[in-house]
Amino acid sequence: MKDIGSIWNKWDLHIHSDASDGKMNCQEIIDKAKEEKLSVIALTDHHTVKNIDKIKELAKLNDIIVLSGIEFRTEYGQKSVHMIGLFPDNYNDIDLDGKFLTENILNPLGLSESMIIQKGKEADGTKDKSDEYYFKKGIFLVQVDFKTAANLIHQYGGIVTVHAGSKSNSIDEEMKHDGTSKKNVSIYDSLGPVKDELFKGGYIDICEIRNEKDGKEFYKSEFCKPSITASDAHEKSVIGLGSCWVKAEKNFNGLKQILNEPERVNFNNPEILERVESNPLKFIKQIKIKRTANATMNEIWYDNIEIELNPGLVAIIGNKGSGKSAITDIISLCANTHNDEFSFLNKYKFRSPKPYDRSKQIQAQIVWADNSCSDWITLDSSCDKTNVERVKYIPQSFLESLCVTEDDKQFEDEIKKIIFQHTPLTDRYGKNTLDEIIQYLSSENSNAERVIKNKIEKQNLEIIELEKKKTAEFKNTIENLLKNKEEELVVVQSQKPEEVKKPIDDENVNEQKQSVIKSIENISREVTSIQQRIDEYIAKRTELNTDIQNLSQIKQSLVLMQSNISQKMEEHKSFLLKYNLDINEVVKVDFRLNLIEDKIKSLTKQRSEIVESLDGDDNLYDKKKKKEEEKKAKENELNGPERMYQKYLSEIEKWNKRCNDILGDDQTEDTINYYKKIQHYINNNLEQELKNAQEMRNNLVQELVDLKKITLSTYNKLYAPVLDFVERFKDKMRDYPIQFSASFIVRDFSSRFFDIVSQSSAGSFNGKEQGFNRLNDEIDHVDFNDSSAILHFTNNINTLLLSDVRDNMNNQERDIESQLKKGHTKQELYDYIYQLDYIQPSFQLMMGDKQLPALSPGERGALLLLFYLFIDMDDKPLIIDQPEENLDNESVYNYLVHFIKEAKQKRQIIIVTHNPNLAVVCDADQIVEMKIDKSYRNKVSFQSGAIENSIINDRIVTILEGTYPAFNNRDCKYSIVEHKL
């Protein structure tokens, strides 16, 4: 059996022939039904089935199904409420042909042909007319008891329809009991106790109304009764007018489906038919599988398998190992799926090279709804990811990998693909993914973040230097250096030259010696002056070196800035021209780098002059040396006392210089005053300066967070369309509480942190498990969408590194460097903590009160399927292999079923399931049962049809291994076929 299952067809279930009061014979009815493209009709003559057998024979030749029907006049109402009995062709192995219906329905109700003829004669008062004349007159003079007739119809498996709404002879028109005017009585007002009993007592199955607005929703909500429309044709031209569409097999069992699924009736052209017609390449019509012409393997496998596929929901069922997943793998391969994690077509199964690669000897092709075909390809082919993906395939292994992984990124990526579909084309900026849009919109913001992070890096360096000065080690070092210098000063002071008295001036000392002494004094002053100039030049040369280097770096930075601006101008030039904007008019920047170059040249010249003075041919050092030699020569001209005194003056000068050099000043390194200044700084200024530096870093971190929040707002804007979608359909999703938001998340902080910090060193994070738990506890208690909380987190981590908070450690101070792994630095750690790369904008998805990481694999699977089935805007065929595999029963029935039903309203769905119950509760339009005869060379076969098909119904029950009662009681929907259990 190769039935396409339940599809929409036009049904007209109320037509009269010339056997009663109709004006058409059977052939005319069939011809007109064919012209109107009716698939199923019901012949419903008044109180007769005379034409039933004949019209059914004619219908077989025209592919039209005729249901047996009888229209009855009942005792209720002013003009009689009309009811119709519709009957199956066979009931309990009994053929319900015209003869059977006459003998077992009409005659027991007192509607024998002879009795009706007699009624006609009595009413007409004549006896000379034909029996046909009297019969057609008599059929409107007889009535049946409504309940008796309904019970008898049901006794033989029939269905009772009743005229309802505003139709003539309707139960609502004929049985008013409140109000006297037909115009001022609503449907509900017209309900009386008897009518209430007829509906609720099971006597009525279907309401036949005039049109869709004639009480359909009322009968459905108040009594759970479906409604149909029909032509009630008595003339040929009326046949098909007012007919309705029914999605079911074209038989009586198909009609029974609407009793529990009123949505299977449509009063207008069904949307799916319009979609198939307008987008035929979005619906797979058929899959063909066969052996290649040169196949040599003894195994048969697929011997010209051709499966027609329903455009709605197709469920592929079968026992384990029956080849269900093979079909979805093959369909998806032919449709160029980009997800090739196949369950069947893999190297361990059908593509295994041992004993031979079977996939090379089987080929397949799919046919689309417009009868266009894919190329025949062998099953060892690979998908072309550069070409269009014609289906969305979710293999079971792919779904499982998304549900059980601890990494949320792949799961999020799948969700992002669906969210991207909701982004209007006008807001995609020519990008192909959500991440590309985010990157595009955030590019300048990212540049600004890099600038702030560079500032944080420099600030961290400053803080590290300040923290270094705060350490006891640094304090001790300064104290020791100061002490050493003070001791050195004591030693030098103890070495003060012994005083030599100046010789007493003697008036008789000759003028020549007086002149020598004065020359020595003058030369000493010149030497001192030269030394001062040397010191000044050295200081100036140091200053010039620094200034020239700074100017060179500034120039280099400005050159880079100029290049970047030029590059940006070139990037935007063509776009601005689109709007007649000249980039050179928009941006005017004057880089006068020559001014810096001139200043560098000037300073370089000064430096050269100083170098010449210090290192040239006639440099100051040489001049000083000459003067010192000249002084020594003059001293040699003096006598002993004078020479000794001059020597003393020279030595005391050197001694004073040594003392002054050791004392120094607060700017000269390695001097007493320098170290005292540092001590004063440590004791009085360091703490405040460190606080200021840390506050500056906090301000930079706040700026960085503010920039990240701008990116976060981009996320929120991009998620707005899907939020709007969820809001629009909140009624359908009220039992499936999902929430979207964009927020900051911490990604991989712990792993990166412990790449730098050793857990074997003394400190708050000592111990592999204990340290990990302490860090994660800090993370878990922070709201990373709160700027102040982020600042607190960064500083608190720093505090934990500086103070040991473990039990019995009393917040003992710890050196951060001692806690670092080899090869890592404090600068690296601080940059990681404060540059916030681990805080990333991310969409947050919640089901109920659970965030994504807290969802069980089953809940994750349900959530992902919810996206694919309901929120996904793609309309290409969706193929899911075993969607229930990773879900618990609660997730299956709370989420999966509902959204499969929703999804099939907008796209073709093909699912593989081990559990036919899923196909049943999801109202599958077609069941395809796969089989493999392993005893006959692995020959694959299948049968297909609708749920209501008796053969398929039996197969479902068989696969369920006798669990039919649960199946049969599922919403009372599937007691279509009688089963003997």
From TrEMBL:
Residue ranges annotated for the Polymerase/histidinol phosphatase N-terminal domain, each copy included: 11-76
Coiled-coil region: 449-495, 520-554, 683-710
Alphabetically ordered keywords of this record: Coiled coil
Cell membrane is among the record's keywords: no
Pfam family of the protein (one): PHP
Molecular functions per Gene Ontology: 5'-3' DNA exonuclease activity; 5'-3' RNA exonuclease activity
Stored SMART domains: POLIIIAc
Name of this protein: ABC transporter
Species annotation: Phocaeicola dorei
